[in-house]
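**User:**
If convenient, please work through this fold.
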Amino acid sequence: MCSEFTVFTEIKPGHADALREDLATMADAADDERVHAAVRQIGTLHDARHVIFDNDTRFMFASVFDGSWDAYIDDFAKTVVGERFDKVFSHSVGFPGVKDPGAKDWFIAHQAPAGVFVSAYPDLTVQQIYKDHRVEEAFEEVLDTPEFRAALENPANEELVNTPAFQKLLEEASA
């Protein structure tokens, strides 16, 4: 369900320090509510990395996402994340801008697919991970109540509590 996207670009001469500053600003703003909201709205981004290398002459952007590559790029262009793409990639030679009709062709020309791509959870989408987290938080909240403890100890619930599925649920919750 998830795919990788890796782009290698040439940094414009004299732009490495400005790119480094933009990346630092972006990292400082990582808790920016607008960015979190945009990433949640897009709902397909697992992670992203930015690396300056080769004596400040090259730049790598790598990410893992769900769904189609076209939708991934289109979704970013529609949010505040697209503005950040523009700012960061403006330091790369020839970048037309994320909203430019030629942006996808530019990304494809600079993309280098991974020879090997491994994911710890290849069958989970970002949306499923968000849902699993919400369910886990709600379940943990229930586990901590005296009412739940009383229900576990109630003889009327003994048959349910002793089922393998319920026991597995309790084991997983205590792990």
Observations:
- The radius of gyration is 22 Å.
- The chain has a mean pLDDT of 90.
